[in-house]
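The authors assume throughout that readers already know how a fold can be written as discrete tokens. For illustration, here is how one protein appears when written out as sequence plus structure tokens.
>
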Amino acid sequence: MSAPIKQEDFIASIADAFQYISYYHPVDYIKALGEAYEREQSPAAKDAIAQILTNSRMCAEGHRPICQDTGIALVFLKVGMNARWDATMGVQEMVNEGVRRAYNDPDNKLRASVLADPAGKRTNTRDNTPAVVHYEIVPGDHVEVICAAKGGGSEAKSKFAMLNPSDDLVEWVLKTVPTMGAGWCPPGILGIGIGGTPEKAMLLAKEAIMAPVDIHELKARGARNRAEELRLELYEKVNALGIGAQGLGGLTTVLDVKVLDYPTHAANLPVALIPNCAATRHVHFHLDGSGPARLAPPNLADWPAVTWTPDIQSATRVDLDTLTKAQVASWKPGQKLLLNGRMLTGRDAAHKRIADMLARGEKLPVDFTNRVIYYVGPVDPVRDEVVGPAGPTTATRMDKFTRTMLEQTGLIAMVGKAERGPVAIEAIKDNQSAYLMAVGGAAYLVAKAIKSAKVVGFADLGMEAIYEFEVRDMPVTVAVDAAGSAVHITGPTEWRIKIGKIPLTKA
């Protein structure tokens, strides 16, 4: 029988794991992404993948977060029936303490994104606790642990359906994935859970994306069961949708598709779909009472030799301090820009407060006239940083505020992640504005373009406060121009036609 698992060993292992996954991608994911980069024919998608790969290596070397959204802490535990504990705290308490230590580590402070009272005051817990923990009791005397950090952008795109037994599951997936947009930051991994009950299907889908990327091995040996047949079919057909990296259109939307199933009721076919984003973050380890987990750093030689730098030749430098509405109206869809000067930030909570203040006729703390806003909630800085990783958040969450911001504050352009919806596009068109896209999953790389940062409004909102950033050559792409043309619509359509395997009429 193994020695008892000590409380401090368990807590330290959890803390080390969440620090580890904040800056180290799984090597299987990075290798698959490097192969996708070599295959990619879409210039926009290839550029986005280059930024993600460059950011990944920078984070691995600098031990800073891959994404500014350092995720909600998720832990899968398989506890041996004969495992013994030397502990006074419960398992949930120990997990929470490990998460608390990891997210408040002064050498690599992670962003606290968890809010208590979710349908009420939505108060930040300040340390990213509590974690979400799933338990399974299994034979043996060891404890198997999977720690994952799941970003809000990919979690928001989770889908579930109670299909009829005669319904076509593949058809449902192919209709559903395009509705997810690009807020889940492709290229990533799709987890499919089939069967059981509604909650079981969702858990299967979540557990599925914790497995290594191995679709190429499966293709080489061939499927051995229906779940593996579905993996191969969906991998080919989802990529044939042409959504591509960051939703810009291209050959690779998913690097793998994972499928787990479970027996279900004769009247039901529960199906869940959960994506893992470009900031795929998970690590597996065992505890047997011999001490804390020892997580070996990956070999940086396994990272592809890809280094993204600003495209000085073809990109247009923009001076944000002298920007005019006429200049914004002249930008074209897909145009590369390098932003320079002062830029404001703001996301969900700030936009809600601004809208409420405007409705009451109150003065805003910041003048938005002829300014550009960046949808971001940065990580706190450490050491000599002016700001921590600061990649874009999903822009569609701000869609309902867009017309108000453009027509009542003087704002002239916005920067965010992924596509905009019809309501925002119409407001952009009516106001001759523009929406610019930054690459999700390249937060540390983006932060290097930020030369100063200060809070200028709503300081009580923490990472959701309004900052003023001074940026130098921050890379963005014109995603919606003043005429309302959107690259997240035109790009995938173009590449779906080029790939030619799935007609547009079946979307």
Notes: The two ends are 56 Å apart (CA to CA). The chain has a mean pLDDT of 97. The chain is about 30% helix and 25% strand. Residues 43-62 form the longest helix (20 residues).
